[in-house]
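[Automated response] Your request has been received and processed.

Submitted sequence:
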Amino acid sequence: MQDPIATRLARVLDRVRALAAQVFRRPAAPGRFEFGSASSLRGYLTTAPLVEPARDYLVYVPRGFSRSKRAPLRVLCHGCRQSAEDLASLSRIAEYADREGCLVLMPIQSDAANGWGCWNWFETNTEHGAGEAAIVAAQILRVRRRYRARRERVWVAGLSAGGALAAILGLRHPRLVRGVFVHSGLACGAAASAATALPVMRDGPNNDVVAVGDEARSRWHEATPPNVALLVVQGDRDDVVAPVHASALVRQYLRFNGDTLIASDMPLRRSDASSHEAAGARYGLRTDDWWIDGRVRVRAAMVEGLGHAWSGGDASYAFADARGPDALELFTRFVVDAEGRGERSRIARLLRAPATGIDRNP
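Generated structure:
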């Protein structure tokens, strides 16, 4: 028979614990946008030499963020005739950041630097890592230090002209960037000059982008040159940035990552793995992976039926198509595969498995 006094005491203690939990539990701080600016002495443009080499940016700080726990950093570069706020909304980047616990840096183009709001991916200084590439690199450094972001988990993404800038950052600033996500964009150095940018977008590179990748790699004289993973998402009905640019990006980044089977005078080698998801409620999707050193380094996702638009985005905005697979979901999967976190999770499950060594939940 239980002691009634002990029973009542236990109930009182339970109530005290519950009350203490309510009093001392701190609700997670909501996500928020913060504003900043950064500059670079190398940020001048040949196409707009009088424009100050500085750009503003937004940072999304995710729900529950704490500087005591270092968060990954994502950089999201908008396209032409589009604001950083537009791309953030149509891509639902805040929801993604809250879910993944990552910071998001969103550079803002200056109207004085480009009247269409485009990043100047075709400009000589930028293509070589100075210009606007240097300015965004300075933003990455500032945000990474201010918010104590994890330096080894910085990924740069962008749409269209923003995707082209992301591709440049991966090749020209590989010590800052773990990987790149180019959505409907172009390879570094795709256009030989600013005057040829528009026809290049429509018809394909007029420059040897494989040689550009090889040259970028040769700049690093260390025993282990930096490696930068690449995800390309492209619509096969894009009439603004031709689908051929996806292949150019793959070839460039494979060569930059040391793939000796890629050369300027050779066709793209066959992918190491491929899959196809048939069209249904959403467009069909063909995915090809290229592996280097036992891990996927480059992935191309061709969305069947998608035009020049963010795949799976909010269709109430321009340059978004809700019928495509969610681009950020494709990005999430690739980050896990490229960083090897999926493999580590599987190894952890194996270590926790019964003595039989059978993993019943691979």
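Summary generated for your ticket: The longest strand covers residues 295-304. The CA atoms of residues 140 and 158 lie 14 Å apart.
If you did not submit this request, please reply to this message.
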